UniProtKB/TrEMBL annotation:
It comes from Pedococcus ginsenosidimutans. This is Uncharacterized protein. Residues 32-75 are annotated as: Disordered. Keywords: Signal. Residues 1-21 form the signal peptide. Residues 36-66 have a biased composition (Low complexity). It comes from the Bacteria.
Amino acid sequence: MKHQRLPRAATTLGASFTAVAASVALTACGGGSPSGSGPVTVTVTPTVTADGSSSSASEPAAPKAPTSDDKGRGYDYGTVTKVSQLAGVTVIELDRWTWKKLDDAKLAQQGVPLTPFKGAVPYENQNAKLTFTIPVADGARILYHHCVASDQPLQTRSTDAKGLVGLADRENTVLVKLDDQGRLVAADNVPGCPG
């Protein structure tokens, strides 16, 4: 194929014509230089699109599973003052009581007797202001015991944690058995028989 060579003057003239046409086109589109009437302001408006996905920054944090105030004990003893739900877990608030003539360290290891008592109560509440939060483990065994008379067998039935709140005097204290995480795995109220 042959290439045609144009004379130098024709090439220069064509380049000048192209530059003028581009300048006119830019001026018509507002691409020319400002006329000295002030600064040029450029406004950029972002476009937001929703794609239906969610980011982790906009999701609420999942509630944390409750932890026990009684971790490290095998047992605790007192009255259940409140039962609630936290992060889908049942939680009790235990007002710790003292079993007379039993050191708390020993109570934490072996618990208290579950046999019904007669006569004077064998426990006392030395601090009604402090409670301990104890999560209830799945499948925990919770029993309510009632003594009709000292010569009658105990009446016992299964209940849930709410059944331990508001028990009558002389049967309102509860022995709580704990696992290694301080969760309630078993609970029994300690009944007193009528005099």
